[in-house]
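User: My instructor asked us to take a sequence, write out its structure as tokens, and then describe one feature of it. I'm not sure where to start. Here is the sequence I was given:
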Amino acid sequence: MSSRKPRELFYEQFARIGKAVSSPRRLELLEMLAQAERTVEALAAVTGQPVANVSHHLQALRHAGLVQARKEGLWVHYSLAGGDVFELFRLIRTLAARHLAEVDRIVQSLLESRDRLEPVTREELLRRSRAGTVFVLDVRPAEEYAAGHLPGAVSIPLKELEQRMALLPPDMEIVAYCRGPYCVMAYEAVRMLRSKGKRARRLDDGFPEWKAQGLSVEKSGGAGTKAGAARQRSRQRMKSSC
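Assistant: Let's start with the prediction itself. The structure tokens for your sequence are:
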């Protein structure tokens, strides 16, 4: 039996979590896994990190109990160990935004300069969807959409948006969303849509926050369809989620 005091033993274990999330690369991996389960190779591709580095970071997160793995054939798929892991990530993000002036400077210089309009809240999106006055657009990569998305949302990844503008309704405001409040893709999508004469705003956060709130989500392997049918599905599904 250890002669150390119980509180020392507890603090040592608590510190394992802090150590595991002390790397910005690991925080990025947690945010990516909040979107969808992924292999090491897929995470390396989406984050631009070398496979060996991603593997090292995942092992550190796994040893701290923050991610879990399952094997399917030759592939190992990683996911968050639970919804509370995303809550930890969100708390770190919130604390940084509240107490670190540098976060606010980054937002003002790199994000808010792209979009001066007030974003759409979850509550407003649900209310307007019930009224059938909004078109919900998911601009994340297709595999993230397939793993989970807002009810009725249509998938058009950002890199395909310009070529697929014809799928979007000409007479309805579009609300774009992506991975979270600091995800550049939603800002860029809104900029592109407005440049083509579309009425567009962004959701003030993203898919993981929507899911964490306990709101309804869907899984699908499909992508966007014709605007009229998609618009009707968006309206009906959002109604059923409320």
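For the description part of your assignment, you could build on this observation: The domain at 6-85 is CATH 1.10.10.10 (Arc Repressor Mutant, subunit A). Try explaining in your own words what that tells you about the chain.
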